[in-house]
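WARN no homologs supplied; continuing
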Amino acid sequence: MTVRVAAAADAAALARLRWRQATDEGGYRGADRVAFLELFTDWLANHLPTHLPFVAEVDGDVVGTAWLMVADRVPGPGRPRRRDGDVQSVYVVPERRDSGVGATLLEAVLAEARRLELEHVTVHSSERAVPLYQRVGFQHDQRWLRWQPE
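OK structure emitted
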């Protein structure tokens, strides 16, 4: 298995995984796959500076992905550059789950977060994935609050 930072050239593979995630697990039943692939390719090109995609490949096939969203924060005295990250849209194809793909993707994401000197990295997780995130070092934090529009 190889894990690497993806590029714009990987847009089609990333879009296919995102589509598969939505249809296999999210219950999406739309028929607009071609339009989504085009939209996703455009979105990726515009968001690569802030949304870093990682892919896992086995025998040349992309079998998993994880994203690190990087956000600039308000500067502070003595800290002119403040940034944090958020892990998003982690997905491993079902036939490759429980084989270390997810953990390897997350290790690459967190190595990049360290390289970028991010202050912290968050993740919003499904119940099933919480143990995976905890194994790679994430912890529950009671200080986080969330607002959601009604």
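The chain has one domain: 2-135.
OK
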